[in-house]
U-box domain-containing protein
Amino acid sequence: MIQDWCVLNSSYGIERIPTPRIPVSSEEALEIHFKIKTACKNGDRIGCQNLAAKIKALAKESERNNSCLVATGTAGVLSYAFEEFSKASFEENFAVLDEILSSLAVLLLHDKATNCPVSDASIDAIVLFLKSEDLSARRNAILVLKELVPLDYRKVEMLSETEGAMEALFKLIKAPICHTATKASLTVIYHMVASPSPANAKIIDKFVDLGLVSLLLEMLVDAERSLCEKALGILDGICDSDQGREEAYDHALTIPVLIRKIHRVSDLAMKFSVSILFKLCMDEKRENGGVLVEAIQRNAFEKLLVLLQVGCDQRTKEKATQLLRVLNVYRSRVDCIDSVDFKNVKRHF
């Protein structure tokens, strides 16, 4: 509880100045954990909802509280509670699940989700929030997924098999609700398309069918660094599939965007751009040269030479060297028409 103390002010008389709250202790945190587990055991929705709200308030109050809650494994306890209430009716438990998810979203910004149990029921409930019309619930759902998915590719399989999940992730990019949610959705999609999951090919093809390639290329034209890196990472994963490469071949922005990003964003963006270009060029089978000719026209040869001169990681260097050899075959046949502002490029809107 806030305590007040008084000071004398020459202009306004006595003022009340709030003193800082007393930080939560490990003992208090563990007591809250015990109460949450008891509430779950008894099916006490209101009690658990109130305790989750208390945790969120404590976490937002100070970094010291946050550290204490993280150290005592509060995220794991909340995850357990979410799982327990996910097993019953979503409609009946909506309020408590919503509060727990909101609290988890706050805690997982500072904690690793390694001790958070995630069942099919939990994923189903999170996806229901992800598909809801409540913007706050959708934001909380994607922030929690962003922390859960990278830890275990089996969660990728669970997510991909949940009806409407991939469509909801796509929607967060196509119709953004906030910058944070967009980045989180891109992160989740990246781990899905890059995972070693047996379902990887089906995941990529589904996102391609949704129109993700075109959407990402349009985004990349003016995207800031973080979004750019994530979008390129996804495209790199997508171009591992035949369907993904075909979609990239057919889009007028693909080669201009990739070549422009080689030196303009970051080392990571450069790495992804070269990797995508490598996959497209090395798989090119059209007699007229296709993307190989277009890459030369967009100044790819010169930019790859500069890349080798300024330095890059060994794998990227090897890809750039092989690209130069392949591009050199067509170099004398076409002129460079480098266009950094995408003039004369047909864009899909």
Q: What stands out?
A: Residues 314-331 form the longest helix (18 residues). The longest strand covers residues 4-9. The radius of gyration is 25 Å. The chain has a mean pLDDT of 86.
